[in-house]
Amino acid sequence: MDKDKIINAIKEGDYTKVKVALVDIDGVLRGKYMHRDKFLSAIDNGFGFCSVVFGWDMADEDYTNDIKVTGWHTGYGDFDAQVDLDTFRTIPWEKDTPFFLVDFVNDKAEDLAMCPRSLLRKIIAQAEDMDFSPMFSQEFEWFNYRETSDSLNAKGYQDIQPLTPGMFGYSILRMSENHEYFDDLFQLLGAFGVPLEGLHTETGPGVTEAAIQYSGILEAADRAVLFKSAVKEIGYRHGIIPSFMAKQTSALPGCGGHVHQSLWDSKGKKNLFYDQKAKDGMSPLMKHFLAGQLKCLPEILPMFAPTINSFKRLVIGAWAPINQTWGHDNRTCSLRVLASGEKSTRIEHRVVGSDVNPYLAMAACLASGLYGITHQLELDTPETKANGYAVKKGLLPSNLWEASQKMKRSKIAQELFGGDFVDHFTKTREWEWQQFSAEVTDWETKRYFEII
Fold first, then answer.
1. What is the C-alpha separation between 372 and 374, in angstroms, rounded?
2. pLDDT tens digits, the chain, 452 residues: what are they?
């Protein structure tokens, strides 16, 4: 739908308000309702949105570790927000209220370096300059609980009730048992412009997995961000709290947010990753892309594993990788290669967890792959054909602090994303680590309270 048609739809529709939102550094949607007239004015002129969304963490606590872009030292003024009309959709569970995503720009009307969506668009432009059309999609695993926000707080997030009991992956029975919820997920997400390729239970109490249909990379990231928020909003209507925390408990597998990726020609007609003549189906371009991702992975790991909890998932035997490995259809590797035909040949990035910011994860995937192509890197890492956990070389950083320090010092990260973004993002990850380190955990109390 072009600009004029969108404007006419807003003007002629029975709408008094429009919902707009942007995504903060943690991947959380921050937004508001705007009166229709105010929104129509903002299409051409932009509008002010408080810069605090890049000055505080996901709990609305102000960063105090020298965040440069905004803070008490700037007075927390407004940034200029620009509506992206291409993101127009309506929210079916809110009486088809119009919805748009926005981007932040600075006072020179240039993309703000810290804005995750703007960062991704910058990397996409680099790909397009190389005559590539990146085609991406994301899949998510998450836990569902028969709780409300009030009940979770009253319980202190203890003894919470899963939607279903036991370990029952790909269960038709469990899907049928809660079919109203799953029906709404499939139908309402589709109506919201987030079409699903598949939806099924995963192993674990109340665990579900969904694969979003693939598309151009920016649309794929938009869909992924909106998917997480929409699943929560739909869940609330059924008395269900969905959780995209990467690792719910040490006793169960974690939740992946795997990213599927391929490069096509500029017209989107040919998958450049596939080579019919090659024995393994992989084109030289795909191998360069894969080599770049392997090389860059430990340098930019926080973009795939952004929280303290992320690293509890990246452990041996938990269906998540721990090292710089790749293999054909091998789910123990960081990068799973699927090269069985032109339409389906792709790389699945399995380091990515469900707690990720999709814009940053996809930007990191694409930028590191393009790095391999630009530098003509050879795929000299041997293929892992057996258990990836047995590979002792190329182990990834083991916690958020270690990973953040590596990225902070990385020349590769600076080359890929620019110094302003790297500085801001790594400081927010350091903040996350510092907040955690100051807390006394249940584990410490149980271990030390009486015995020591």
1. 6
2. 788 999 999 999 899 999 999 999 999 999 999 999 999 999 999 999 999 999 999 999 999 988 999 999 999 999 999 999 999 999 999 999 999 999 998 766 677 889 999 999 999 999 999 999 999 999 999 999 999 999 999 999 999 999 999 998 899 998 899 999 999 999 999 999 999 999 999 999 999 999 999 999 999 999 999 999 999 999 999 999 999 999 999 999 999 999 999 999 999 999 999 999 999 999 999 999 999 999 999 999 999 999 999 999 999 988 999 999 999 999 999 999 999 999 999 999 999 999 999 999 999 999 999 999 999 999 999 999 999 999 999 999 999 999 999 999 999 999 999 999 999 999 999 999 999 999 999 999 999 999 99
Which two three-digit tokens encode residue 59?
Answer: 């709990």
Contacts of 142 (CB under 8 A, 6+ apart): 207, 208, 209, 231, 242, 243, 244, 255, 354
DSSP-derived 3-state class of residue 162: strand
**pTM for this entry:** 0.97
3 state DSSP class of 422: helix
**Among 80, 48, 54, 78, which residue's Cα sits nearest to residue 68?**
54
Burial 315-345 (b: 16+ CB within 10 A, else e): beebbbbbbbbbbbebebbbbbbbbeebeeb
How far apart, in Å, are the Cα atoms of 348 and each of 10, 305, 316? 39, 16, 19
**Tokens linked to 298:** 């430990």
Number of neighbouring beta carbons within 10 Å of residue 435:
13
| Residues 6 or more apart whose Cβ sits within 8 Å of residue 114 | 25, 54, 69, 104, 420, 421, 424, 425
